[in-house]
Amino acid sequence: MSLYCGIACRRKSLWCYRLLSTYVTKTRYLLELKEDDDACKTAQQTGAFYLFHSLAPLLQKSEHQYLAPQHSLSELEKLLAKFGQDTQRIEDSVLLGCSEKHEAWFALDLVLNSSSPINASLQKPQMETELKGSFIELRKALFQLNEKDASLLSTAQALLRWHDAHQFCSRSGQPTKKNMAGSKRVCPSNKIIYYPQMAPVVITLVSDGTQCLLARQSSFPKGMYSALAGFCDIGESLEEAVRREVAEEVGLEVERLQYSASQHWPFPNSSLMIACHATVKPGQTEIQVNLRELEAAAWFSHDEVATALRRNNPYTQQQNGTFPFWLPPKLAIAHQLIKEWVEKPTCSALPA
Ligand SMILES: NC(=O)C1=CN([C@@H]2O[C@H](COP(=O)(O)OP(=O)(O)OC[C@H]3O[C@@H](n4cnc5c(N)ncnc54)[C@H](OP(=O)(O)O)[C@@H]3O)[C@@H](O)[C@H]2O)C=CC1
Ligand SMILES: [Mg+2]
């Protein structure tokens, strides 16, 4: 239970944390690290660093899953020296969060933003040997990470990618400067501040009362179907984006919709996935698939979907050469939305 006293006081630039809940003190501490470069630099002394190489995280294989190793500041300094890089590089790291004991977590890409060229004699395989791990594409590893690592590495990749793509001011053309935490970049010549951005995406599970509508793009792994997704257009509300995407992709008119949950998604460029349940008018369920966007779309029964959710190792080719119908993995919000539909009958009959 929170003991938040409602009074936020500052003492020698530090928040007075007395009487605040663990969550609130942690949040205030992270806010301070974002606002105060010196505090952030101090936090690096006791912090932990996740390493990347061209946006691929350093991972270690442990049985059926990957683990993301952490390095202390002193370990990182030694590694950078071995890789022929200046310890100044540590200032390119970005703040990801912190533990309840205020151990701050950072991410550093050993290749991106590097002003000093990487020691030509020390290439990626040698770095991996030195680091006792491998740099693996996040898309390939995400579903074999635990929830905490998946979330931290997704945030890290999204932030590192944003910094790499926003090194120059779009007004003056001058190089922008990152703050210590990496929560913004500033153009020194005109003081314009740039903040990391996410694109809002709606993801909708449409139901006709008994069945749900799932679709697949040709780029999906074989046999996998998911809920309908689409980027919000500028000026649209969430409700308008859902109605437009469903009409565009499958030619149906949404009658009712209800927000379910949201998730940050790092691919392709950092999106905020906003998940909704929607229903269509009875008798208006004939799908007209937009083949420019989708390969296929179909209605699935409750039993079919419940069976697919229980499938452990879905991506196995059957004897006749086809792949069974399967659904996105647990970590994806699409999975959570579909699971919620299976478990809660109210998702098929939304209130007016
Ligand atoms: N976490 C999850 O469970 C799921 C996540 N997703 C994510 O949702 C996202 C959107 O789904 P999708 O069906 O592809 O979206 P859309 O149906 O909106 O189609 C994608 C196309 O929209 C155009 N587009 C418009 N705005 C943007 C923008 N800001 N960024 C990129 N492309 C834009 C692009 O077209 P053009 O290239 O012609 O310009 C792109 O190819 C995907 O990136 C996917 O990774 C999807 C399903 C499940
Ligand atoms: Mg789409």
From TrEMBL:
Keywords: Hydrolase, Magnesium, Metal-binding, NAD. It is an enzyme of class 3 (hydrolase). PROSITE patterns: NUDIX, NUDIX_BOX. It catalyses: NAD(+) + H2O = beta-nicotinamide D-ribonucleotide + AMP + 2 H(+); NADPH + H2O = reduced beta-nicotinamide D-ribonucleotide + adenosine 2',5'-bisphosphate + 2 H(+); NADH + H2O = reduced beta-nicotinamide D-ribonucleotide + AMP + 2 H(+). The keyword tRNA-binding does not apply. Pfam families: NUDIX, NUDIX-like, Zn_ribbon_NUD. Its EC number is 3.6.1.22. Residues 196-323 form the Nudix hydrolase domain. This is NAD(+) diphosphatase. It comes from Equus przewalskii.
